[in-house]
């Protein structure tokens, strides 16, 4: 049954708005029909005649006549619809985060999506994965850190960084360290032809050992060039330092070292070489030594994936790389970035 038709009175302002809506080529069809219904109703047309002309059901015409009569132009807008209530809420998210703060089930090294869903009991595993992705939580990746317990950390770090940023005038700053136990591994290398005709290059998992060598290296901070030991056997630290001082005769040397025992208790040697001064990085902070960066470059560009048939071939290979590196060496640029540290709220790091 159609409700009794409501009388519609249009003000001049509302009529102009509705007529403009009907003329506009970008007006949505639903808004166009509602405007025509109200305009025709204001002209005194009946509900059924309006429905026939606009092409809608009479109950639709009656609806918009009543809505405009009660609320004006605002009544022609759609009311907000609540929609379906979400299954999972912010409370569910907090439960997932709270569970991640707890240790995983006994026998497991870390949480996984299925383990979290099983522990929650009423949360689907797909939602768990979506939540973890939206919050950029990676259950596999791990961050590591090292806390130095050196009471003189600030003073030592400032001393080393000061040598990088503002080195003493007419002095040479060197970063010295060793890379021990570099293995001369012989691997079977070549091409593997697949049944589809494609060829892959690679190496066998099997290998043969031909001994190890230790590399002593000194990086000149100002130029980025490398001085290294070329002996076949493992040389002592002071023997290497003698070769370093010989490379810079009559120059003041500031040598940055880590806290290895062989680098300490060398007072007699220092007395014999008054132009040399040792600077030690803080405990557990050897990353301040720039030669460690070069060791990483050496490993990635020269040693990884290479096969050697003898220890001599390995040593010659390292010599060739150092010579090529020195031809294009550039100093590392020491930059300072703002450190943003987030405290562990309510958490305690324990040792197992």
Automatic annotation (TrEMBL):
<protein>
    <submittedName>
        <fullName>IS630 family transposase</fullName>
    </submittedName>
</protein>
<dbReference type="InterPro" id="IPR038717">
    <property type="entry name" value="Tc1-like_DDE_dom"/>
</dbReference>
<dbReference type="Pfam" id="PF13565">
    <property type="entry name" value="HTH_32"/>
</dbReference>
<dbReference type="Pfam" id="PF13358">
    <property type="entry name" value="DDE_3"/>
</dbReference>
<dbReference type="InterPro" id="IPR052702">
    <property type="entry name" value="MscS-like_channel"/>
</dbReference>
<feature type="domain" description="Tc1-like transposase DDE">
    <location>
        <begin position="173"/>
        <end position="315"/>
    </location>
</feature>
<dbReference type="InterPro" id="IPR009057">
    <property type="entry name" value="Homeodomain-like_sf"/>
</dbReference>
<dbReference type="InterPro" id="IPR047655">
    <property type="entry name" value="Transpos_IS630-like"/>
</dbReference>
